[in-house]
Request: fold
Amino acid sequence: MQIRHFHNRDLVDVWQVASDALHERYDPSIFTQLVPFWPDGLLVIEDMGRVVAFVFGVMSGVQHARVLMLAVERNYRGAGLGTLLTQEFFRECGKKGVRQVSLEVRASNFAAQRFYQRLGFFTVRRVPKYYSDGEDGILFLRYL
Reply:
């Protein structure tokens, strides 16, 4: 297994992992549209030539980054891949002088909330109807 930056050839695998793991249904073009904003914030884990996990983040200010998506293929969950990706994302943030990282999590996704809390994120506030299906989001923040 290796962690590396996203390449356009990863699109099918990333879209498949996202479709299986996340409740939102993303247009596949969103992944390639994010590349110009901050290529170093788009990381994947590849196993045997196939992407099995990814994190996509963007710079949203001079010292602020946002995690837009993090997903791990079902068969690879519990192996620490999400933690590895997040730590590598933090390293990329550090290279750019980022001091804060934020993200949103579904209010009903308690496992994800616990995961991010273990990584040092804390709850900022509830965001009403954040998701396309009307579910609230929870805004998390972490200082680097």
